[in-house]
């Protein structure tokens, strides 16, 4: 079975721009969660989608949003980028909401 | 809110030796899950082991085992016969049970960087 895939792997943007990251879960997995990883804040939960509905949201501003499609693929969007948004964004999928999560390789976002 | 504490920022172990990574957590929940993930320099986060809080038996996966002490809220990871490929950042993580309505959110510790040397 193919693992979780994330595209693109690397992104460079400038302040004020917006960005969309994509995540394809493991086949059959219905829950997709997103995390931000930075050296200063560590790993922080962004949000979780299950059956195309956001079920959980972390403590991030409204500039961070996401969605899930009927095939369980998910996208997250960050608008009006700030320097502090530079991070590794990790997507994780699980069969259902209470199962172990399997992570993708991440998207490294650099905001200049 | 749940918190996860990993008090060892860095550890080193020689190949073939055994090492134990510490993790403590704070929660008022009775049902929850605990995980250890490893993140090698390649950055891909890999699930190492999972423990359900209601199970008294400690989880084991090949060379990896845990010592789960529910009353003490402690969840340590033991790596036996360490290999060079075990070099990675190790994260302890907590997840509430679905019954509480907020499952699927992993709360991570700050990580322990493990270096396996020859």
For the sheet with most strands of chain B, the description reads: 6 strands, mixed
Question: Number of helical segments of chain A?
Answer: 0
* Structural classification of chain A: mainly beta
Overall strand count of chain A? 11
Helix and strand run of chain A: EEEEEEEEEEE
Cα-based radius of gyration of chain A, to the nearest Å: 13 Å
The coarse overall form of chain B would be globular
Would you identify the regions of chain B where 5 or more consecutive residues have pLDDT less than 50? none
> What is the helix tally of chain B?
0
Question: If you average the pLDDT of chain A, what whole number results?
Answer: 94
Multimer state: heterodimer
- Proportion in helices of chain A: under 10%
Mean pLDDT of chain B: 92
Query: For the report, how would you describe the main beta sheet of chain A?
Result: 7 strands, mixed
Tell me roughly what share of residues is in helical segments of chain B. Answer: under 10%
Order of helices and strands of chain B: EEEEEEEEEEEE
Q: What's the end-to-end separation of chain A, in Å?
A: 37 Å
* Unreliable stretches of chain A: none
Explain this structure.
With 112 residues, chain A is an all-beta fold. Chain A contains no helices and 11 strands. Chain A has strands at 5-7, 10-13, 19-24, 31-38, 42-50, 53-57, 64-68, 74-78, 87-94, 102-103, 107-111. In chain A, strands 2, 4, 5, 6, 9, 10 and 11 form a 7-stranded mixed sheet that branches. A 4-stranded antiparallel sheet of chain A has the order 1-3-8-7, with no helix packed on it. The model of chain A has no long low-confidence stretch (mean pLDDT 94). Chain B is mainly beta. In chain B, 0% of the residues lie in helices and 51% in strands. Chain B has strands spanning 3-5, 10-14, 19-21, 24-26, 32-39, 46-52, 60-61, 64-69, 74-79, 88-96, 107-108, 112-117. In chain B, the strands form 3 sheets. In chain B, strands 2, 5, 6, 10, 11 and 12 form a 6-stranded mixed sheet that branches. The model of chain B has no long low-confidence stretch (mean pLDDT 92). The A-B interface holds A 31, 33, 35, 42-43, 45, 48, 50, 55-56, 58, 88, 90, 92, 94, 97-98, 100-106 and B 33, 35, 37, 42-47, 50, 91, 95, 97-98, 102-111.
